[in-house]
Amino acid sequence: MGCATDPLPLRAGQVAGVLGLGLAGRAAARFLASLGLRLRVSDQRSREQLAEAEPGFLDFLEGCGAVCEFGGTGGSFLDGLDLLSPAPGVPLQNPLVVAAGRRGIPIMGELALAAGRFRAPVIAVTGSNGKTTTTGLIGHLLKTAGRRPFVGGNIGAPLLDCCLHPEGYDCVVLELSSFQLDISGAFRPDIGLFLNLTPDHLDRHGSLERYAAAKRKLFARQGPGDTAILGIDDALVAATKLPDGVRRLSFGRAADADCVVTADGLRLASAGREQLFPLAAGRLHSLVNRLNAAAALLAVGALDIGPEAMAAGLASFQPAAHRMAPVALIGGVNWIDDSKATNIGAMAAALASCPGRVVLIAGGRDKGGDYGLVADLVRQKVRTLVLLGEAAPLIEAAYGSLTPSLRAGDMHEAVHLAKERAQPGDTVLLAPGCSSFDMFSGYAERGRVFAEAVLALKKAEP
Hints:
Blueprint lengths: L14 E5 L3 H12 L3 E6 L3 H7 L3 H7 L3 E4 L12 E4 L8 H9 L6 H5 L7 E5 L4 H14 L4 E5 L6 H5 L6 E5 L2 H5 L8 E4 L7 H4 L2 H9 L10 E5 L3 H4 L8 E6 L6 E3 L3 E6 L2 E6 L8 H15 L5 H10 L8 E6 L2 E5 L6 H10 L4 E5 L12 H7 E6 L4 H8 L5 E3 L3 H11 L5 E4 L12 H17 L3
Parallel strand pairs: 1-2, 1-4, 2-3, 5-7, 5-8, 6-7, 8-9, 9-10, 10-11, 15-19, 16-17, 16-19, 17-18
Antiparallel strand pairs: 11-12, 12-13, 14-15
């Protein structure tokens, strides 16, 4: 097994433009320079800010003779370019990217640059929610089985680092965003996973249909011998059309899935036998994480990992922070941090995972999704809404007639209001359904502040 797509013709002496020098952009610059291409790079930050981001990178640029533009991009940047590689965070509507397309300059994201250059089987994971947990779990399961995976992409190491330093890896596990897949070129994963699809990043893609089309590019270059793994609880994912000869595997709560998510674990059909994996007592017990685990088992099963290693890996896996993370049990009320629920679909998945009634802390910076999609779930499960941030009025307008709602000025006030409304047996759930950048530096800070406020409550218990 291995990626059969031929590498795109990159030749020494060509001039490559790299637009955006974040982690992925810097990796792209190094990769292109390693092939002998001449670099022209641009970043909105100043030279001093870039030096702070990665000491030594400016020395690398100087050493390879790169032409650098900092604090913006001049009008002649595209002149003489053989290709332009925008970093994932650069919108395709960026005037420079649009102008490059009009000039006929090939626009190649990091996946397009890497296509055909991986020396080991590639597992690629996409979806609106659960990507990081699933990717990390796949890597953990492979390590438990004695494999040596490279784990990166949209998390951790940039994926081009694997092409620069392939030694030591016998498989590649990548988390991929729609931004990366938008300009993925001839990239072809041996095993592609599409977990779910809910409205997100519509400010970039413009519509759910275009967002879905970007995700489905994961499978566009697959062929006979490749595997696609689909979350069939999601109708849009289940309807994904695959190229001829691609093996289709599925996971979800439906009885005919290849890996069935049950009330307390997973049931995996493999080689004519059923394997049961109980998860009720472990860290992956929530519905969200049972679905992630089901996808991961199918992926590693496609690489011939056996049930013993699967069970050991599931038992020892530690999910990343701020993803359905238990914080405390106070007075019979369970407090859960799912600050990573930054879109409406993730909020819905978190709510569905909670037994009994929920006091939901939500809000932040609105991402343009449709709050109405979760209305029935809010009506059924939410005892009280505690809202904060810029989106509070929007969420209150969507759900205020369905359940009582309160406004909080900050996270500490939100926690105290939630405590007043929660009853024994309830869950207080931080699942904002919004980004955090109106009040916090990121979802991690938001989750940390929530956990600190909750633990202060617990410490004050008589």
